[in-house]
Amino acid sequence: MRYYLPYLFTLILSSPALAAETFIAAPTMDVTVTATTVLPVCNVSVAQEITLPDTHISQFAAGGVLNALTPTDYSGGDIYTPFNITLTNCGSETASISRTMRLTLRNIGAGPIIDGVFSDYLQNSTNVGIVIFNTDGASARNVLLDEIIFTNQIATNSEQVFHFAARFQKVGNGESGVASGLYAAKVSVTAAYE
Q1: N or C: which end of the chain has fewer CB within 10 A?
Q2: Could you state, in order of their start, the residue ranges of all structural domains in the chain?
């Protein structure tokens, strides 16, 4: 029995199943992290109330100026109310850096009646809404259908003014569902430099 003990000990220590150095191969994994930094320093100002021109119900009927306009049609003229969104005190950086500035306008409360049309939160009519266009640049853009992005903007303390226009938008057929009275849309404005 004396001769077998060292042999048994040697056998146990050299067994590959019980060896101290066992390697386990783990799968490799790549992780991508995306982050956006936001400068929360701009003051955004816009008129608290923007009044559209008085509009007769007949302008929504066949032959009326508002009858055939789609939410992407911008023609200028007296059916629009221009207004500005002004940014001030955006210069928190020590050096001027060109950034992308994004203006986002959103419907508060009920969602759009149809794509591109702010709903009437007073619910005076289901066939009339309000459209808003950004009029900076070569062509006007509906703020609900197009991203309002300005590239190569400098976050500055100087006043930056962006131009918009609003009008009524017919969403139904004929004059039915169009009632006289007050219409209103509640809109939130967010400005972010990226």
Answers
A1: N
A2: 48-193
